[in-house]
Hints:
By secondary structure, the protein is α+β, with helices and mostly antiparallel strands. The chain has 19 helices and 13 strands. The strands form 4 sheets. A 5-stranded mixed β-sheet has the order 2-3-9-6-4. A 3-stranded mixed β-sheet has the order 1-8-7. A 3-stranded antiparallel β-sheet has the order 5-13-10.
Amino acid sequence: MATRVRDLPRVSDRGALGSLGNSTAERLDFQREIARASAPLVRGRLLHLPVVFPARPEACHEVLVSKAKSFEKSPGLRVLLHDLAGNGLFTSEGELWRRQRKLMAPLFTPASLGGYAEVMRRAAQRAAERMRPGQQVDIAAETTRIAMTVVGDALFGADTFDEADTLGSALTTALGWVNESLASPAIAAHILLLDATGDLARRTRGTLKTWLERAHHALESPFLVKGSKSRELRAAMAVLDERIQGMIEDRRREGLSRPDLLTRLLAARDADEGGSMTDKQVRDEVVTLFVAGHETTATSLAWALYLLAREPAVRERVVAEAHAFADSSLESYDPDKLELTTRVFREALRLYPPVMIFPRRTLEEVEIAGTRLPPRTIVFVSAYAQHRRADVYEAPERFEPDRFLPERDAARPKGAYLPFSAGPRSCIGMSFAMMEGPIVLATLLSRLRFEIDPALRVVEDDFATLRPKGGVPAIVWPRSYSASQLP
Ligand code: HEM
């Protein structure tokens, strides 16, 4: 007979919020506790609500892949991103999401992304040229600039996007608001209210039902943006809308002839029904891709460079690969040329998954790993916890790219490696990121040497993504620099 949620083993409470904790350190501590659990599922608390955490890889696989139909994403992110990313792929659900995913998937296959390899290399080359010998840099700030240039260039073309121009700064302002709001108690309260009105509307009838449905709908957009939030944010949104609409119109006028992703989104047709996207939908997708596509990659690049700076033996082998790669043509990108660099990037994603937790909610009663979850149960899948399981990854805290040698990789259970999640809602940009990460790493390392203080221990900060707290301070030297040239 199936177990009930209340019979599951409990994870410890960490203060008023419940199991998740109030600080990054508490949140990571709680995920390490899940990593140690031997039961397939454990139970915790978020404020007053019971929450279920799949602890074993097979249970994660069931939630994300084999029983994905019984789950939706939690409404929290939808509220936060409502005004910025609207009904883009990350936040939409149901039929709209299915149609959009089908329309957009062909744009993100390795074969159709080949042309962007040069964009990725160029952005890293320009960054390397900008840095002066002996300059003190923050590696995380540099990788953010590179990743923003890459995604901006891929979406709009090199001539259109510049992080310093109006479009780049409007996006940065809007993202800053989302990041700040993630930690805001007002938003947490808002999300709970959204949830409560939806729940009550389902259970009532007549005028009260209509009233609750209206309130629920109004709450889907965060009132902070509509109401008291600064003029600066609303001005940024207006710039975004105007610039993107202008670019859409330009591309239509030119007959959709450019190679950028915006043009390809406008040209995308449903294979069965032949329909295309409305301009508003294209706008939402463009902003979604920009938001989802740059901070994640930037964060993982920063961690990879930090890990390599502390591990000279691996670094020297990566540099040798990077030198050989630097001279190769990118007409058709061959990932085998960056075999070790790719493993390093994957190991950085294991230790520091930028999106460390995926919130879900059951749409119906479903049985996971022998436990019956009632409808509307909140489930958190933690990539961070999976990546630190000692029964899957020997000495899980150690940086060891050889874990991703093909035979060891193939021996790992499904659901144990989740940097891009898995199943239907997994990252559509995975192939893009798995090209960008190694290409940018190799290009930077073929030209530069990052010197970090050997005593420096960077810790995590789970602010939007799992970032290096306080950045990664380093002194940068051209790789070809000889001692006689040092100042
Ligand atoms: C190292 C870099 C990246 C990481 C670690 C990452 C991680 C993820 C994860 C974990 C999800 C699923 C979240 C969930 O299930 O709740 C996701 C979804 C998504 N990602 Fe990424 N991502 C990365 C890069 C990118 C790039 C480069 C793009 C686009 C150019 C992108 C676009 C998206 C989109 C649109 C979704 C929503 C997909 C859907 O729901 O159908 N990501 N990403």
